[in-house]
Write a structure and sequence with these properties.
By secondary structure, the chain is of the alpha/beta class. The protein has helices spanning 2-30, 71-78, 109-122, 135-146, 170-175, 180-205, 214-218, 226-246, 274-280, 296-299, 301-311, 318-330, 341-344, and strands at residues 36-39, 44-50, 61-64, 88-91, 128-133, 151-157, 257-262, 285-289.
Length: 349
């Protein structure tokens, strides 16, 4: 009886890991890497690097995606709209997308900030405006503290940067565990996760409309690969302790800073994080857009680009642009469910 039960468990594990491996290969074959891997000292980071154009009027721009994401998210939001204006680096954070995880330090925002700094060196980017969305905001803040000489400005988009009540979702805690986490990611993440992609991406945009082509363009399925999901879970589980320890140091940041947030963000609460950053970083400019959720990079792309221009020293009235964005959000048209202009202009292999 016991032998039969053990055999059944072993067969289940073999079948589950085989299915996960099969689906992982299928996802990667359907959505191959659009970036280039660069060795930064024992491991490789993946990025799309668009060199500085002759017509550039902005400094270099480095984009850092959030949790459960990859470089395609920010690439889809900004690459076409900023074409011809700046050198751009869209990074898969360590252990995400097609980047390798690297050292144990990369389980923290500080380690990931250092990794991005090394990648900038390899790519010949001396300094840049650093743009961080959501979890990427914690990394952008770490970058500003640890690499001020490389930081021309900081743009935070719905950032996660401060302690919050309530902890993290149970599946992150479980997936981050040493042994049971491996079993959980192998057995359950892909079959359950594939069913939740549609609703999950809708909730990220809520209360705003998600572009119809968002899933196809940004490939959130990449995070469902077992190893990537564990890396993502470890990042999320570690974040609370990290920001609790480092938020008091944000006052050390000297770079010009703009924070763009929505008052209807249910993913990362603006009253804790964005207002906290505005309070803690000297001279930071906070732009709050009414009825905006967690995706200012897509719903208020023009405001985000104007913030980059302002950080580059160009005169821009961000509050007037935010007011215009509020009017658009309050009066949505059928176009909001269509492919975004940026996405329509981008082709990927």
């Amino acid at each position: 009886m016991i032998d039969s039960l053990l055999l059944a468990i072993v067969l289940l594990l073999i079948a589950a890991t085989g299915f996960s491996a099969y689906k992982t290969r299928a996802i990667e074959q359907t959505y191959p890497n659009i970036g280039e891997l660069t060795d930064i000292g024992g491991y490789r980071l993946n990025a799309v690097h668009l060199p500085r154009p002759i017509t550039a009027d902005l400094p270099a721009l480095v984009f850092i995606h959030g949790a459960s994401g990859n470089l395609r998210d920010q690439f889809t939001a900004f690459a076409a709209s900023l074409a011809g204006r700046a050198e751009m680096l869209f990074v898969d954070r360590p252990g995400h997308g097609y980047s390798e995880r690297g050292t144990a330090e990369n389980a923290l925002p500080s380690g990931q900030a250092d990794a991005i700094a090394k990648l900038m060196d390899k790519r010949g980017i001396k300094s840049a405006i650093i743009i961080g969305h959501s979890f990427g905001g914690a990394i952008a803040a770490a970058f500003g503290m640890r690499h001020p000489e490389k930081t021309e400005g900081l743009l935070f988009l719905a950032p996660a940067t401060h302690p919050w009540p309530g902890g993290v979702d149970w599946y992150y805690t479980l997936a981050a565990l040493p042994v049971f986490g491996w079993l959980f990611t192998q057995l359950f993440v892909i079959p359950i996760g594939l069913r939740r992609v549609e609703n999950g991406t809708l909730s990220i945009f809520r209360p705003n409309a998600r572009p119809a082509d968002y899933i196809m363009r940004t490939v959130p399925e990449l995070v469902l690969r077992p190893r990537t999901f564990r890396n993502n879970a470890i990042d999320v589980v570690n974040l609370f302790a990290y920001v609790s320890a480092h938020a008091p140091r944000y006052r050390e940041i000297k770079a010009p800073t703009v924070i763009i947030t929505g008052d209807s963000d249910d993913i990362v609460l603006e009253e804790l994080h964005s207002r906290g950053l505005a309070r803690d970083i000297p001279g930071a400019e906070l732009v709050t857009i009414r009825n905006l959720g967690h995706k200012p990079d897509y719903v208020a792309t023009d405001v985000a680009i104007a913030a980059m221009e302002r950080l580059a020293g160009q005169p821009r009235d961000l509050y007037e642009l935010a007011a215009q964005a509020e009017i658009r959000i309050a009066s949505p048209t059928e176009e909001t469910s269509q492919p975004s202009p940026a996405a329509q202009a981008i082709t990927t292999s």
